[in-house]
Amino acid sequence: MKTIIEPFKIKSVEPIYFTTKEERIDILKNAFYNPFLIRSNDVLIDLLTDSGTSAMSSNQWAGIMRGDESYAGSPSFFRFEETIQQITGMPLVIPTHQGRASEKILFSILGGKEKYFVSNTLFDTTRANIEFSGAEGVDFICEEGKLPSIPAPFKGNMDTDSLIKFIATKGAENIPLCIITVTNNSGGGQPVSMANIKAVKKICTENNIPLFIDACRFAENSYFIKLREDGYADKPVNEIAKELFSYADGCTMSAKKDAFANIGGFLAMHDEALALQCRNLLVITEGFPTYGGLAGRDLEAIAIGLMEVMDEHYLQYRIRSIEYLTNKLIAEGVPVMQPAGGHAVYIDAKAFLDHIPVEQYPGQALVGALYLEGGIRSVEIGSLMFGKYGEDGKLIPGQMELVRLAIPRRVYTQSHIDYVAEVIIEVFQNRKSIKGLKIIEEAPMLRHFTAKLQPVE
Ligand code: F0G
Asked: CB neighbours (10 Å) of residue 64?
């Protein structure tokens, strides 16, 4: 087989900024060892997130010019609405400024004290919105999903036995919604199988619990189903996506991922009464229902991006490029989540830095080391992001200690990725010199965004 190439050529470029290691030592210290506090001009290769960082296509930029900025009834909204209806089969479409705005609206309505939201794994903003409403979020990830080094085709699957038990214990009436995140971002970007979605849907139907999809990366998940699940090899990705959505009562979406947009999101659903409540909240928080939190031009860019992402040449390149970096690291013995996920490479920081205890945040320590060595920005998905304190004040760690290198869509070329691999391998060879960190300041919610840390001496 020949090399799988980037299925695009470059029309417009932007500079990246070089710094020296000496400069980065100061930058990291001044940013309190938190990558969110580093200025992006001080970053060489920015793998902090794949969210809102995509390169838009010439067609999307053309759509930006076509965008109609009418307050009500813009044709851009109707193109947006029709595209989403076509992909999801859901008739009621509500635009929002990004994924978490959809979550805020949904959980403000359905959440509240003594309620439980069940999931394969809730993303951090989803969990935070659930908890902010007074409710609790509970993850039931399958056993193989908890083991970074053991490959399995669908490590994003929900553990249906635990789900059934939980429903029996807590009572279905206290569970307003089940949410399946595709792909499972916080668990390694791993896909969920169609069979698992169907099985969860069956349990939900039997218990009268609606099922929503957190659909940020629906196209990447659908492509994994095509590659790995029996019976889907010859199906076009748009049909697979349609089937995936057909099992759901609704979805939340951040268009900053698979829609290649720099901003945007939506809620889509079948339930008229729920949609009415959502739109009532939408007008006081986001905007009028035909633009939500967006400009007409954003609605155009999203509608075009949603169709582009299902191009199978693109998806083949996308999935392959993540696998390419993952395999280079595996070849050098670097512990990574296996197999490769859909949008990011996840390093198992607990294994990489086995001399640093979880209380000293090995993931965050590795994030700092990658920045120092090569100007690469990554993010910790571990106990800084998900850790909590017990009543005794002791850290209750997150499920895993991962470092995510999220690859923005259509942005970096293969030589950028080769460079990233070289830096990680060099850091791996010198890993014993890396020190743990302690928190010196933190916020009560989503603390990883603003926490200040310093090295443990
Ligand atoms: N759900 C998932 C699975 C996500 O990955 C994100 C965002 C959201 C919801 C929220 O969407 O950012 O548009 O409000 N993930 C980004 C990331 C931030 O870096 O993974 P948003």
From this structure: 16
185 close to ligand 1 (CB < 6 Angstrom): yes
- In angstroms, how far is CA 219 from the centroid of its own chain? 13
Label residues 84-110 b or e (16+ Cβ within 10 Å = b): beebbebebbbbbbbbbbbbbbbbbeb
Residue 354: what pLDDT? Answer: 97
Q: How much of the chain is helix, strand and coil, in % rounded to 5?
A: 45, 15, 40
Task: Please state the domain extents for the chain.
Answer: 21-50+311-455, 58-308
* pLDDT tens per residue, range 262-311: 999 999 999 999 999 999 999 999 999 999 999 999 999 999 999 999 99
Closest-CA residue, ligand 1 atom 1, reads: 123
Could you tell me which CATH class the domain 58-308 is placed in?
Answer: alpha beta
Looking at domain 21-50+311-455, which CATH architecture does it have? Alpha-Beta Complex (3.90)
432, with CB counted inside 10 A (0-12, 13-18, 19+), is: exposed
Substitution site in 254, 258, 407, 446 for ligand 1 pocket (most atoms within 8 Å of beta carbon): 254
CA dihedral sign of residues 11, 15, 21, 25: negative
Give the model's confidence band at 101: pLDDT under 50 very low, under 70 low, under 90 confident, else very high: very high
φ, ψ dihedrals at 440, nearest 5° = -110, -15
Q: Which of 103, 104, 106, 185 to mutate to test the pocket of ligand 1 (most atoms within 8 A of CB)?
A: 185
- pLDDT tens track for 211-267: 999 999 999 999 999 999 999 999 999 999 999 999 999 999 999 999 999 999 999
Q: Is the dihedral of CA 155, 2, 258, 262 positive or negative?
A: positive
State how far the alpha carbon of 400 is from the alpha carbons of 197, 203, 334, 347, in Å: 24, 28, 16, 10
- For residue 16, CA distances in Å to 42, 375, 376 come to 9, 11, 11
Among the listed residues 198, 102, 196, 184, the one whose alpha carbon sits nearest the alpha carbon of residue 158: 196
| CA distance linking residue 102 with residue 281, whole number of Å | 10
Our answer on whether the CB atom of 49 is closer than 6 Å to any ligand 1 atom is yes
State the average pLDDT for the chain: 97
So what's the pLDDT on residue 457?
85
pLDDT tens digit sequence for 370-385: 999 999 999 999 999 9
Contact between 238 and 246 (Cβ < 8 Å): no
